[in-house]
Design goal:
The complex is a heterodimer of chains A (387) and B (134). Chain A is of the alpha/beta class and 387 residues long. Chain A has 15 helices and twelve strands. In chain B, strands 1-8-7-3-4-5-6-2 form an eight-stranded mixed sheet. Chain B is globular. The chains are: A alpha/beta (387), B alpha/beta (134).
Chain lengths: 387, 134
């Protein structure tokens, strides 16, 4: 990989050991993946925040780091709501470790916004054509596919290295040739909002790390796309997909897949909720303002009989404190900075109902809970005593 | 015997070889407090990685493995140096953040080396020296 004179000096340690280590990470990954040079990034989203995921080992590394980020950097969700963790049933020891992690990142200059949807709170972090170094799989998918920015899926150390250097190696989804569709997915169904998570769950399993190009009957909205991309990144490892007509066409001979009402119905039935459901979680990826408004409307005048959590970014909850108050009047709780997948809070339950294809893929593996799926109406209905 | 190699993580160290033909997932396979291999399914089960030059094909598994390497280093239970046939990001990043010399690009025949053979890894000079062999 070619390095500029300045980059070479940093790599040789002339600008301090912190930058040397950061440069080594970028150069090594660039070598492994065949990058030709480093390119500047507009922003960074750092993974490796939940103590549940990185444990003692990760905490020690972050605490020992010295340096200062040179581009805007935000965090992935943590393992708990950073202020209301007691209400989540998080124990003191976990909370202490989790707060230490976030504090250690803050010392490096990382903004302590812990969200999988940085694009919902700070649109300036990613614009069409920007290069980024983001980590969380659904955020990566949204940035590449909906915003039209370019990012690989970074690990914790490589994202942080990119934030300290302000650059990332140029390979993978930064390159035009890696952004060509590999599959054509024709969706033969009039999709409702709650179908996108299921569709993503199905297609992710089919295409793995491919680049699907969808043909829809009607154009999905932003929340639909958020749900679709998140599910494909969890059941497969899709980091880029296309959904509109001016997308690049797939080369001749690309695999074609037809998804029908029957396919969607089969998965729905396989994950139909039953009396075993003990907790219901909405907000994977983090709820938008519009989604919060919908939950508030559905809960109006009702009381929850089962635990109902709604996860969102702190900035959104603060901006729409009115909606949060409405939702919580029902007994449901709005948690920030975290989600059902990265928090140990759900571990004490046997079965969780979700309205997310991504959560559906992860809850059984990462949380060792059974999972059920329903639309947001069905989730609220189940929480408030209906079936 | 001197073997050319490719620097992944800088530095230089000498020690007895510990060799396996199986890839290593540091998360789950190695106890981060002691450096002992605790996965009964692994060829190195029961062996300690500490103070060895660890020679293995490459890493695998969870990316948290990078942090486990770091924890081993802080406990004084990490390998002195590592040699891979082909490094992947988990072990590469783990070695860098832990300041453990790591090289790759050596021939797979190095995996036939006997345990305990003294090996020097000079990552900065991109050279591996094996004692007693020509």
């Amino acid at each position: 990989m070619h390095l500029s004179r300045e980059e070479e000096r940093a790599y040789q340690g002339e600008l301090g050991d912190g930058l040397r280590r950061a440069m080594e990470i970028l150069v090594v990954l660039g070598d492994i993946y065949g990058a030709d040079r480093l390119i500047p990034v507009r922003s960074v989203q750092v993974a490796g925040v939940s103590f549940k995921t990185i444990g003692e080992a990760g905490l020690e590394w972050i605490k020992d780091l010295r340096g200062r980020v040179v581009v805007p950097a935000v965090l992935n969700p943590a393992g708990m709501d950073l202020s209301r963790w007691r209400e989540m049933g998080i124990d003191e020891r976990f909370a202490e470790k989790q707060l230490e992690i976030v504090e250690a990142y803050r010392r490096l200059g990382v903004f302590p916004d812990c969200t999988c949807t940085p694009y919902q709170i700070r649109p300036d972090l990613a614009r069409r054509g920007d290069h980024l170094a983001w980590s969380e799989s659904s955020a990566v998918s949204f940035a590449n596919s909906v915003i039209g920015a370019r990012t690989n899926r970074e690990g914790g150390p490589s994202a942080l290295a990119a934030a300290l250097v302000g650059k990332t190696p140029r390979y993978g989804y930064h390159l035009e040739e890696k952004r060509i569709p590999t599959h054509v997915i024709t969706v033969d169904s009039d999709l409702k909002a709650s179908d996108y998570g299921i569709l993503g769950y199905i297609v992710g399993k089919e295409v793995g790390d491919g680049v699907p190009r969808f043909i829809f009957r009607k154009r999905p909205d932003v929340d639909d796309l958020k749900a679709l991309g998140a599910a494909m990144a969890a059941s497969g490892s899709v980091a880029l997909y296309y959904f509109d007509e001016d997308a690049p066409s797939a080369p001749k001979g690309s695999e074609e897949i037809l998804v029908s009402d029957k396919d969607l119905q089969e998965v729905r039935e396989g994950f139909a909720p039953d009396d075993e459901v003990e907790v219901i979680a909405i907000g994977c990826p983090h709820s938008s303002e519009r989604e919060l408004a919908e939950v508030a409307r559905l809960l109006e005048g009702k009381k929850v009989e089962r635990e109902l959590w709604i996860c969102t970014a702190r900035a959104i909850a603060e901006r729409r404190a009115d909606l949060v108050a409405k939702i919580e009047r029902s007994g449901a709780r709005v948690f920030c900075d975290t989600c059902m997948v990265v928090s140990p809070a759900g571990d004490r339950y046997r079965k969780m109902m979700v309205n997310s294809g991504k959560a559906l893929a992860y809850v059984p593996t990462l949380c060792k809970m059974k999972a059920a799926y329903g639309s947001v109406e069905e989730c609220v209905g189940r929480a408030t005593g209906g079936v | 015997m001197e073997i050319r190699c490719h620097r992944i993580s800088g530095g230089r160290a000498t020690g007895p070889a510990l060799v396996t033909k199986e890839p290593i997932s540091f998360l789950g396979t190695v106890d981060p407090e002691t450096g002992v291999v605790v996965d009964p399914g692994h060829q190195l089960y029961g062996r300690s990685l500490g103070a060895k030059v660890l020679i293995f094909p490459g890493g695998k598994g969870s990316t948290v493995g990078s942090y486990v390497i770091y924890q081993l280093k802080k406990r004084g239970a990490a390998p002195l140096a590592m040699i891979n046939i082909k490094s992947e990001p988990i072990v590469a990043v783990g070695a860098i953040i832990s300041a453990i010399p790591l090289v790759d690009g050596v021939a797979a025949s190095l995996l036939d080396l006997e345990d305990g053979t003294m090996v020097t890894v000079d990552a900065d000079g991109e050279m591996v020296r094996v004692e007693g062999a020509d």
